Amino acid sequence: MVNKEILNEAFIKSIESEYIFDNAPINRLKKNEEKAGIDKKLIDLREKIKSIEDCELKKFAKNIVFNDGNPKSQIMLVGEGPGEKEDIQGKPFVGEAGILLNKMLNAIKINRKDVYITNVVNYRPPNNRKPEISEINRYSVFLREHISIINPKILILMGSTAMEAIFGQKLKISKERGKWKETIINQKTYLSILTFHPAYLLRQPDQKKFSWEDLKNIRKKIDELKIKI
Ligand code: URA
Fold first, then answer.
1. Between 49 and 30, where is the model more confident?
2. Per-domain boundaries in the chain
3. With the C-alpha atoms ordered 129, 132, 135, 141, is the resulting torsion angle positive or negative?
4. Is 199 a pocket residue for ligand 1 (Cβ < 6 Å)?
5. Model-level pTM?
6. pLDDT tens figures, 152-202
7. Which phi-psi region, left, alpha or beta, contains residue 82 (left: φ > 0; alpha: ψ -120 to 50)?
């Protein structure tokens, strides 16, 4: 018995210390706890948005459209707001703009299910109008909380509504797209990039060349930062 223990000790000492102290099961437990924490925070945020009062958007919408994709992703995309199909299905980017978005992501070898997707406003604006600035400001509080929960390494803001929600009305998307910006949200700095919204690209296909530049730029950054997707 004693001999066996001595033998084991000698064996253990002969192994690289990283194997001895590798606490993978504990890490796995911690990751599960983190995931449960994120899920709970997302449920709470969703409920908070659902209890919003006196909102012209919520009044006419069928469903809340909150999120899609992987909440543990390090890449978060923000669109404008749900359209008709999204309103019916309760899921962002499932209509024509969503089909184009999927293609854009695939072009840089990203599968939609591996990123996290949300919108500035979570209820469909009547007749698909652009959300008013007061609505953008109101929902941007939720969006900021949403970003803090997901805590992405890269934040992709698609279109002028997402830009206004984070930077206000002072910027022009045609001038600012494609530039990496450090953005402070709830006291934390995020790396963000503005790019055209897929719905805009459907209306203005000649602008796709700029979008392609942005996508390649995003792919390069993902590789540089060694982001796992
Ligand atoms: N446009 C958006 O901004 N979001 C959607 O979910 C669909 C279309």
1. 49
2. 29-224
3. positive
4. yes
5. 0.88
6. 999 999 999 999 999 999 999 999 999 999 999 999 999 999 999 999 999
7. beta
pLDDT tens by residue, 132-159 = 999 999 999 999 999 999 999 999 999 9
Return the axis-axis angle of helices 96-107 and 208-224, rounded to nearest 10°.
50
User: Exposure of 114 by Cβ count < 10 A (0-12 exposed, 13-18 middle, 19+ buried)?
Assistant: middle
CB of 68 within 6 A of ligand 1: the answer is: no
Smallest CA separation from ligand 1 atom 7, residue: 93
Amino acid symbol at 24: A
In the prediction, which pLDDT does 3 show? 57
pLDDT of residue 8: 63
29-33, 111-115, 161-165, 212-216: least confident range? 29-33
> Which atom number of ligand 1 is nearest to the Cα of residue 161?
3
What's the full length of the chain, in residues? Answer: 229
**H or E stretch covering 182:** strand 180-185
CA of 199 to the centre of ligand 1 (A): 8
Q: Could you tell me which residues come within 8 angstroms of residue 68 by beta carbon, excluding any fewer than 6 positions away?
A: 91, 92, 93, 112, 116, 117, 118
Q: What is the CATH number of domain 29-224?
A: 3.40.470.10
**Bridge partners of residue 183, in order along the sequence:** 190
Q: Which alpha helices (H) appear in 14-81, and where do they start and end? A: 17-20, 24-50, 56-60
C-alpha count within 13 angstroms, C-beta hemisphere, residue 225? 15
